[in-house]
Structures are given as structure tokens and as C-alpha cells.
Recover the amino acids of this structure.
DNA sequence: ATTTTCAAAATGTGATCACAAAAATCAATA
DNA sequence: TATTGATTTTTGTGATCACATTTTGAAAAT
């Protein structure tokens, strides 16, 4: 039995998870609906690996934690399960899916395929101005890495990739890319808990140079390397070790 | 302003859409929750192109049509919007996304990439028995085509692809493949409304032969051809013509 | 004939409640 | 001590209601 994120325990402070929900209330733009807000907060927490796989979420618990009611929280949970971030068990409990070495391998392979495709489809549309923006994001990320600020570096890395792919005005792949990021989130959390410092690989300059030359193959190759040598670079044995340590 | 699927109109029988919801009540397995059932029915309707793009759905209208209440219907709609099947407008209206020639092109390209990947990842796992099942499904599809039974042929075609991809026990891509199918659904509806007979391309035998030889590249090639010469085979001019006819 | 104004109807949203199923707690038993 | 069984609590689910916003439809004005 995993732990629960429920009212009592949460209020008693026995769980570390509420901390996530409480600590990062995210600013809520005016006009944003409650279910949207709940969706964003939970999504954020999962994306950065703050919710451990196997931990089951309770609707009432979350509702209480973010001072709302079951209805909008349920909608948020349904969306997240459709996005692959959460899994609904037979007993209707909802939890973050457990990670396995096989699943991890599938996720990395899929991420590479998806993002190479997205990058190729953007090459023909991206402007010099947008490429300059990529340079700026990459620079900011380097600074975050130098300061060992994992969270910021991670966010900037995502922004780099998102900016590239959305250069295609008809792009429809971003939700799927984000779904893979979401599904990799829990592993990130595990890795960060057991590894002193995340080691970042940065093939962004390579991608930028290829973009300037409009070389589709080279762009795809850089993106592939960025993914496979980055988070995908964990060796199988290391992954299994990590997952065992984390009690998966 | 598009038409609405609302209580009054639905009951007045002015809309063709309720027919879809009423005609195919789908059997509801015991224990299936209401929101799950609503999700399945709407999904089915969208997948086969029964709901026209631009038509906006109302929560109460659907709830009334399937004799339930707003709560579970809203959950179903949220899921479908996360799956890319529906779009939430700024005024919070929900509708089937409009199709454009550009979006159609993106969908076909993505479908090809996704399914080639899925097929490749299945080659190493699929058993001879499963390949035999593919043969049976393909045969049934041929019969449906011969009888000009579009709906059945479509369903069997999906089953063929699904059976192939799910041969990989760690497969995680199916939800994304289905998302693309869903997003192509409305175009299918348009095409079927304006074309006398859907013309089916069948590269399945080619795929089966390649699977028997465990030839990954050949499998991917067959899948690519199946998609690009099938639904993807519409010429740009034909697509734009169709969309104009449909008032997109 | 077209546009503007305004009251009525419809709609999305979220809180609350009741019910059934599942989980947890605790006492009794082996 | 470990296990079973019954009671209590927690939880998911869906219907209903109230509120604010949007849309609609008709009347009035241009």
C-alpha cells in the first residue's frame, strides 16, 4: 500500500506532497477557472517529479489542499489521466504510474521520434528572430546549470524545445510532446532524489547552427542527441538501480 | 455562428447529431461509470465523423440526450479536449476543431511518423499467432470493403493497426495514435458526405509479409504507404475543395 | 431594411448532498 | 501473535442547485 494524499494526513503534515501543492500555489490569472487551476498545479507537480509513483491521490484531499471542492478537482484529474500523467486503477484510485526500465526505454525512444518530427516540421517555418530567441533561452539555461539550479534549467530546457516546435504555426504535436515530458517527470523526481547533481547535456548550439542553415537532417540529429545523451543517457543498469532504490 | 447540440433543438429533432447519440447507445457494461460511458459515446461519434466541425456541444444538451446530468458529461468533455478531439473556445464553448488543409497535412504526417514508430517497436515482440490474427482481421476488412460497408471497414482497419502496435507489451504510444485518429475523424465525416464511396488502400498484406520476416524497415515502409496512400492520399486541391464544400 | 437596446432564456461553473463501494480501525477469535 | 469479522470512516460518483456570464430574440430606434 502506498501512502495517500488525503485531508487528515495532509493537514497533519505527514506527507511531503502537500508541501508541493502549498509551496507552489502558482499565480492564478484572473478568469482562470478552478478546474484549470487545479490542472495546472497538479501538472506542474507531476512534471518536476514532486509526486512519487505509487502515491495515490484523493479528490477530497486535493480539493481541501487547494481550498476548493471535489467537482473541479475531478475534472483536473480526468484530464491528467487522459494526458498519461495519471492512471486510474480498477478500484478507481488514481495514482502516478509506476516506472519500469522498459517503460522508461519506450518513453525515451518515443520522445526522440516525436521531437525529431516536431523539429523537422518547424525548420521550414522558423524565423531568424525566433532562432535568436532560442539562443537567449539556451544562454539562460547555461547560467542556471552553472548555478546548479536544476529546476530553472529544466524549465528553460523545456522552453527551448517548445519554442522550436511551436515555430510551426500548424503544429499539432505539442500536446503529445508534453505528455511524454509529463510521463518522464516521476523518473526525474527519483533521479534528483538519489543523484547529487543532474548532469545536463546541451546539444542546443548544434541545433541552432543547423537551423540557421535550414538543414533538416542536422536539426533532427541534434535533437536526437540532446534527448538520448541527456535524460535518455542513463544506462540500463543505472536505471534499474535507481528504481530499486526508490522502491519501485 | 455554428449550430448547437442543445436540449430544445435536440428534442425538436432539428439536429442530426442527437441521432448519433441516440442511434448508437453502445452497450454499457455493468460497472462502467456514467462519465466513462459518455466519453465512449462521444468519442465514437467524433471518431467516425458524425459530429461536424464548428458544431458546438452543450453540456446540458448532451446530458439530456443520454439521460444523465451535467457533472459526468463535463468530465467526458474535459477528457476529449485533452485528447485533442474537442477544443475549448474563449467563451468556454466546446466544439469539434475546424479542419484546414494545413492541419490535415500535419495530421497525416504525424500519423505516419507515430505509427511507423509504433510498428517498429512491435516487430521484436509480435508472435506468429498474433500475426495470424492480423491476417484474419485483414480478411474481414476486405469483405467489408467488398460489401461497401464503410463503417465496418474503418473499424477493422483500426483494429488491424491497434493489434499490431499493442503487440509490444510496454507500448505507450497507443493513446497518441488514437488521438490522431480522433482528430482525423471529422475529415472522414466530411469526405463520406461528399464522396460516393471511400476508396480503401490496403498495404496490410505487405506489412504482414514483412512482419513474418521480422524486417523492421519493410514493416515501417508498408505502414507508411498504407497511411499516405490511404486517407493521406487526398490531393491538396481535393482537400481544399472538400473543405470548401463542407463550409469549413 | 438595418442597427441598437434590453429582457428572457440558456449555458458553464463550482459547491453541496446523498448514496454505494472501498478502506481502515478495532475487537474477538484461533 | 496472527487472523478473522464487524463497525466506522473515507472515498468516488453523480444529481441538484445557485450564481455569473453569455446568448438569444424581440422591440424600438435609426
Amino acid at each position: 500500500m502506498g501512502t495517500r494524499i488525503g485531508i487528515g494526513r495532509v493537514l497533519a503534515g505527514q506527507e511531503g506532497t502537500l508541501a508541493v501543492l502549498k509551496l507552489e500555489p502558482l499565480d492564478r490569472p484572473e478568469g482562470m477557472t478552478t478546474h484549470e487551476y487545479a490542472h495546472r498545479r497538479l501538472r506542474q507537480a507531476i512534471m518536476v517529479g514532486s509526486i512519487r509513483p505509487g502515491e495515490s491521490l484523493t479528490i477530497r484531499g486535493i480539493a481541501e489542499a487547494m481550498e476548493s471542492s471535489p467537482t473541479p478537482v475531478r475534472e483536473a484529474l480526468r484530464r491528467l489521466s487522459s494526458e498519461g500523467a495519471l492512471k486510474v486503477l480498477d478500484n478507481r484510485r488514481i495514482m502516478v504510474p509506476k516506472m519500469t526500465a522498459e517503460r522508461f526505454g519506450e518513453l525515451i525512444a518515443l520522445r526522440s521520434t516525436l521531437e525529431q518530427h516536431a523539429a523537422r516540421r518547424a525548420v521550414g517555418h522558423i524565423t531568424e528572430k525566433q532562432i535568436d530567441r532560442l539562443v537567449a533561452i539556451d544562454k539562460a539555461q547555461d547560467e542556471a546549470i552553472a548555478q546548479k539550479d536544476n529546476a530553472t534549467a529544466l524549465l528553460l530546457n523545456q522552453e527551448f524545445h517548445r519554442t522550436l516546435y511551436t515555430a510551426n504555426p500548424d503544429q499539432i504535436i505539442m500536446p503529445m510532446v508534453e505528455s511524454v515530458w509529463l510521463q518522464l517527470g516521476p523518473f526525474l523526481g527519483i533521479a534528483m532524489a538519489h543523484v547529487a547533481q543532474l548532469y545536463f547535456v546541451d546539444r542546443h548550439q548544434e541545433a541552432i547552427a543547423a537551423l540557421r542553415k535550414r538543414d533538416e537532417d542536422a536539426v533532427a540529429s541534434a535533437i536526437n542527441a540532446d534527448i538520448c545523451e541527456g535524460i535518455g543517457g542513463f544506462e540500463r543498469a543505472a536505471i534499474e538501480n535507481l528504481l530499486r532504490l526508490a522502491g519501485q
Q: What stands out?
A: Residues 1-19 of chain B have pLDDT under 50 and may be disordered. The two ends of chain B are 12 Å apart (CA to CA). Residues 6-8, 58-61, 70, 74, 91-94 of chain B lie near DNA strand C (CB under 10 Å from a C1'). Chain B touches chain A at residues 35, 71, 74-75, 78-84, 100, 102-103, 105-107, 109-110, 113-114, 117, 121, 168-173, 175-176, 179, 183 (CB under 8 Å).
